[in-house]
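Task card 7
Instruction: Convert sequence to structure tokens.
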Amino acid sequence: CYGTGDVYLIGLGSGGAYGFFEGLRNIPPNSPGKLQLNTVLNHVTRRGPFLGNNMGVLAMMYNLINSSIDSYRGKHDTAGSVGAGAITGAIFRSSRGLKPMGYASAMMAGAAGSWSLVKKSLLN
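Output:
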């Protein structure tokens, strides 16, 4: 599950960078330096942890489901990874209704499939 920490840090950094630029866009005109800095920091600390936590939870859920599928089937392959991605996305957005659940499931299955193909091409 080392990938969970990596994904969390990627989300934290990406969300923080997005919050940084969002904060720069939302600086009140003619405001003193401390208020400008505070505006940017507020946006960074709002976006960074939010994205990092969501991505970390998704990665942990995926790893748990994927290893459970692998253990049950007795093998690790792309089909199991895609299935784990689909289940993870569906569970993650299950409280939002069927349509968001379907979108999240498709996106996670696509991401898991893409990652499996990239990993397979790098190892061969």
